[in-house]
Write a sequence for this structure.
């Protein structure tokens, strides 16, 4: 009997299956009503008291081994069925969540905002669909100013009073209408012009406008602020130069150049061998504009500036074709710093 038990015990130990049916057969063969164990217990009854002591122990070992094996295999099998049912392959590599990258225009806009916020400028926005007053009239555009004409401005539904804003200056009017000085604010946003799309022009682009209105604001303040900006945005050796210009809403007005950041001002193809590249328009807010917004121009003065984000981005990253900014070609977009 001992030999028989040993043989069956070895069989139990070496048994394994991933199949429910085979496992059931195992159960019947060992633990069933006519199984090995029942058979052995029947034989056991016929033994002498002496023999029973040893055989009883062995039989119990075999019974427990068979029961344990059955339980373990059953559990493994059920777990396997759950996995199969949920259709999950735990051995598969995980799905990577692709981290995007920021759009270069957003990167540059954020950098511009960061620089001016160190000087106390807050950030505000105005609407892209605007009325004539905020886009033109309050900004001192004469009724026959060419910028109002069809080739520059998109009118909404043939209504000459509603336009897609041609610049972010509308937002400075909206701010001044509802806030008395001191005002120190930035206005980033998208603007629209009725231009044929090419590598150098687009029918929409992005600007950041700055406005500072307070007592005793001077052109020197404007110049110092813009010099600080240029050095922070490009590098510490950057020089600026202001050339007289004209905007209806500023007087005097200027355009600002920076020393070419590619050749350091020596002259190269990029700056057309002048050593300078234009980056923004600026000036002292015209008193008429302050008065249009109910700000007393005898008490207050202010400066304003406006720059194209695409322009600054081109200078920083040498993007040759403006259209790339709006084509969403991932090969282009992924070249810039990843989102963080
Ligand atoms: N609004 C002007 C433009 O779009 C830029 C500008 C803003 C100039 C503020 C002077 C002051 O070209």
């Amino acid at each position: 009997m001992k030999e028989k038990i040993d043989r069956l015990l070895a069989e139990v130990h070496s048994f394994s299956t991933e199949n429910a049916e085979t496992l059931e057969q195992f159960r019947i063969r060992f633990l069933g009503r006519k199984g090995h164990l029942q058979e052995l217990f029947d034989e056991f009854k016929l033994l002498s008291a002496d023999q029973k002591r040893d055989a009883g122990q062995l039989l119990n070992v075999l019974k427990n081994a068979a029961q344990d094996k059955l339980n373990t295999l059953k559990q493994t099998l059920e777990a396997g069925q759950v996995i199969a049912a949920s259709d999950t392959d735990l051995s598969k590599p995980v799905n990577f969540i692709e981290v995007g990258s920021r759009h270069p225009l957003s990167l540059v806009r954020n950098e511009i905002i960061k620089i001016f916020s160190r000087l106390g400028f807050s950030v505000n926005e105005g609407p892209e669909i605007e009325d004539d007053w905020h886009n033109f009239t309050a900004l001192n555009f004469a009724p026959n100013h060419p910028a109002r004409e069809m080739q520059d401005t998109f009118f909404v539904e043939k209504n000459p009073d509603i336009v897609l804003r041609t610049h972010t200056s509308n937002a400075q009017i909206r701010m001044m209408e509802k806030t008395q000085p001191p005002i120190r604010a930035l206005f980033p946003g998208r603007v629209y012009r009725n231009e044929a799309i090419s590598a150098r022009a687009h029918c929409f682009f992005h600007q950041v406008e700055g406005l500072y209105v307070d007592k005793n604001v001077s052109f020197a303040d404007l110049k110092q602020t813009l010099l600080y900006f240029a050095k922070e945005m490009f590098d510490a050796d950057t020089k600026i130069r202001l050339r007289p210009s004209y905007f209806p809403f500023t007087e005097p007005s200027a355009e600002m150049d920076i020393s070419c950041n590619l050749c350091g001002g020596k002259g190269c193809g990029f700056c057309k061998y002048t050593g300078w590249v234009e980056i923004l328009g600026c000036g002292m807010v015209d008193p008429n504009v302050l008065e249009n917004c109910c700000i007393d121009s005898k008490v207050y003065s202010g400066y304003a500036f406006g720059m194209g984000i695409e322009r600054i981005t081109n200078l920083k990253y040498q993007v040759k074709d403006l259209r790339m900014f709006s084509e969403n070609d991932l090969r282009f977009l992924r070249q810039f710093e990843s989102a963080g």
The longest helix spans residues 49-86. The chain has a mean pLDDT of 91.
